[in-house]
Write a structure and sequence with these properties.
The protein has about 550 residues and is an alpha/beta fold. It is about 35% helix and about 15% strand. It has 17 helices and 18 strands. The strands form 5 sheets. An 8-stranded mixed beta sheet has the order 9-8-10-1-13-14-7-15, sandwiched between helices. A 3-stranded mixed beta sheet has the order 3-2-4, covered by helices on one side.
Amino acid sequence: MANWKLKELRDERRRTFLKMATVAAAAVGVERTKLLNFLADEGGHGLAEAAGATYGRSLLVPCPNGVYAWMQELWPQADMAVKAVGGFNVPSGQIPNGPSGNLGGISSYLYTSQYGYTPGDGYRGTYAPGKGNATPSVNGLKMWLGGDRPFFYSPHAPWFDHQTGTPKYPVTAYMSGKDETHTEFPVSSLTLSGTATLQAALSSLGAASSSAIVPVLGIDPVKYGRAPGAPDIATVPSSAGMIDLFNSAASQFTLSSKVDGELFETYYKALAGLRKSASRSSWAPQMQVTKNAARIIGLNFASQLMPTNQDIVDMGIQEMIDQVGINSNYMTSGQKNGIEEFGRVLIVVAKAFALGLSKTAIVALSPGSTGETTFTDPHVTFDNQMRMSQGRMTTKHLGKVLDGFYNYLSQQVDPESPTEKLDQNTVFVAYGDTPHTPLVGSTWPDATPDSCNWMYVMDPKANIRNGWFGQCYPLKVNNRNGFGFNPVTGMDDPTKTAEQSTAFGSAAAVFAAARGDKNKAAEYGQSPNTIPGLINSK
C-alpha cells in the first residue's frame, strides 16, 4: 500500500526526496529497477515515473592548450586524409605558411606511407564518401557506404569495427568556432544563441527532471557559460577529487532540511533492506550508517566509484603502462600521464552516470603546460620516426579510453530509462582551442587555414546526420581554405567562415541531447527548424 506521506509530496519536496532516494540506493548498491519498483509501491506510479528524466546525458571534452590535435588523428579531415593515404604530394607555395620544397604529404594525418606507417595488414583507415558521392579506390582504405556526409575514421578511431569497416556509433564534425591557440578556456565553438552556450544548454537538458545529486560536474579548469535552467557546476581537480565531491554533496544534501532528513533516514533504512547482500560482512560498514540519525549520516561512494583493476584493463590503461615499462620509447611520460588521468576520470564519470548520481560531465583532455610539446601541444610529433610512432600510440590509447567508456556504459541499464542501456543515451562532444593545422605535418603548426576550427559530436541515437559539415582544402575555394556549411542543405558553403557556422553545429548537439525533441531544443534560443540539413527529424 502506498505511503500517504510520499503520495502527497509535490514540487521541490518531491524532487528533494527523489534525489535522496537516488543517493541512498547508490550508497548501498540497490539497482535502479529495484528503486523504481520500491517507489511505485511506496509512493505510487507517479512518483516512480518522476524519478526518470526525459533528456539524455552528455560527455563534453574540452581540449585546451593545443591538446585538441589528437582528436584530429582519430577523425582527420576526410578529403585531406584520403589524398594523404593515396600519396598525394603538394608543391611548395600551395599551402599557406607551409614549408618550402616538395612536401611529404598533403596533411598531418600520421597513418600514411609518407610518414613511415607501414602496417602489416595495410589498413590505414575507413572512408565514408557520403550519400551520392563517388567512391575512390585507394590502397589501404576501407569504405563505409552508410554515411550521410564524407567522413574518415583512422585505424584507432573508437566506436568502430575496423575488421568490417563499419561504425558502431557514427561521428559528426562541424566546422565551428575559430583558432584560439594556447587558450585554457576554448569557447568559440560553444556559441549557441544570445541566451545560451552549448555547455550550459547540455547541462540544463540533463538536469531537467533529473534526480541526480550532482547534475553537472567538471574537471578544472572549466568555463561554463549560461543557459535557461542550467544548474550550478561542481568542479574538482582530478578523478580522486570527483569521488570526494560525491561524498560531500550527498552528505550536505541529506542534512539540508530537518523534515526531509527524517524522511530520508526512514527510507534509507528501507532501501538498505532491499539489498540482498545487506547481511554480508563486506557490507557491514555501509549498513552501519543506517543506525545513525539523519543529522549525522555520511555517505561514502568510494567503493562504487573507484576504478578497479579490471576497469584499468578495459580502458587500455594497463596495456599502455606495461608497454611503457617494456619500452620507454613507446610513449613519452607526458603522453602516458595525460591519457592515464583522462581514462581514470572517465571511469569515475561512467560509474556516476550508471548510479544516477550525475547527468553531464565536462572533462578536459588532461591539459598540461603549453611547454609540453609531445602531448599537450604536440609540435614535435613529426620530427622523426620515433616521435611519429609515439604519436600513433597516443592516438591508439586515446581511442581505447573512449571505447572503454562507452563499452562500460553499454553494459549498464540507464538509471532513468530501465528499458535501455546507458550508452544509447549519452551524447559525446569534443572541441578545443586549435586542432593544429590539418595541412602541414612539419612542426605541426598551431595556426589553421583562415583561423578555422571544428567540433566533434557523436549521438548514439542518430538524431543528427553523420559526417563532415564544412571543409578545409589545401587550395582556395572562393578565396578561402577553411569554410563552413549551409544548415538548410548540409552542403559546404565557401561563403561562410567556420565561425559563422558555430551556432548551427551547437544547435545540432543540443537537438541530439534533447533526443530529437524540437520544442525542448528550441528553448535555448536556436530552433532545430533552422538546421534541417543537419538533423534527422522524426
